Amino acid sequence: MTSKKSAWIVIAATVVVTLLMLYGNVMVKRGGIVDNSILDGNDLYARMDREVKGLAPQGFVSSDAMTFVVPFEGRLSAAGLAKVKDLTDALKERFPECGVMSLSTVPRYRDSGRELENAPYITGETIRSMGSDDAGKVLEEWKDAVKKDPAIYGPFVGRQFDHAQVVMLLPPDYDEIGVFRKVAEFLEDRTIPACEWFVKDDIVPAGKFKGVLLAGWVAARGLMDAALLSDIMKLSTVGLVIVAVAFFLSLRSVGQAAIASFTILLGFLWIRGSVGLLQLMGFELYERVYFLLVFTAMIVSGISFAERKFESFNEEREKTPAERRDVLWRRTGHVNEMVLLCGVISILNFATLYQIGVRGILEVGIFSALGIAYLLFFSLVFVPAVHALTGGIASMREPSWLSKRFMDAWDRFLSAVIRFIYGTFERADT
Hints:
It contains 13 helices and six strands. The protein is mostly helical. It has helices at 3-27, 44-53, 78-94, 124-132, 137-147, 176-188, 217-251, 254-280, 291-319, 325-330, 336-351, 359-390, 401-429; strands at 65-71, 99-101, 110-111, 116-117, 163-169, 213-215. 29% of the residues are buried. It starts with a helix and ends with a helix. The mean pLDDT is 82. Helix content is 60%, strand content 6%.
């Protein structure tokens, strides 16, 4: 088999795996920030959580809640109360698995002289009576009744009667990210495409629920996750652009810089696709907000591996400029041992993160180690194969003034970062 055939086999295999990883990217399920986060079963919080869940057969079921705040424009009116009732009814219809509590569900106990009435504080009759009472007597009587009920006055309606709250109780073991995204679609009155969640970092209520505010820790964690996912995409893109410029200034070849940068982009696709494929295989590993750390580790390692291989190729080319590219690549085998050693050390370091006992950090360690393994394949096998077929030769001229200035500034920046980190640990020890 010729070297050219070997290169085509490597590229074909990479394309097949990439297509599989693209499918994995589509199937990725995101995990919540605090979902099953503690690995140590003897941890105090883990034991407390088990104790509470053990009381479920006795009727004690704990869960989270999401709060929808309905501001009253100007002053309280029948229209404002109607909006609260409409929101409550819509939530019960859209989320039948959840419990919904509001002024239109909590009973208002009244003794009629014949029986104890328990109609909610907001009913269709209440809204019609207020709407037809120009003097406002019905509204004032209603407000007086609310003020006498401490379970309502404050928790479900503001003490200044400037807003009302609708509380949705979530079922145990709910999917935090799934519920958050479903609520976002409910409030925005539209279906949000999956690709939009890569850049979406806020919820903008529209339609008949325009102006409704979302509150609660579930909403906060969901928004934090959405914002960080958006930042991951933006920062990763910026990182790739910076990497491409750094590769070009260092390697002095557009072709080599493009190939080296492409391997890091390919690494991003492969590692995120691995998450989806592992989930399909039954592994409880999720993409969380910490995934940016995985991409960061891959950028740092990818730069190191690819640049060292291309530098070795360029050194061999300077010795024999007329030699074929595939022959020159075979002569770079002496750096493989060093690249492998650095990669294995990095993999082992990330693999030990499970000792921290936090699921999110464990996943960072697993995916970072797997990502570095992918980058080793790209640098040692894929890069030589692609470059042998496509080319990309470094300039024999001395680096330009701009290249020297950039690399000198980069070296000073890295040295400053290392000194800062070392100084921080040194102060912490003392």
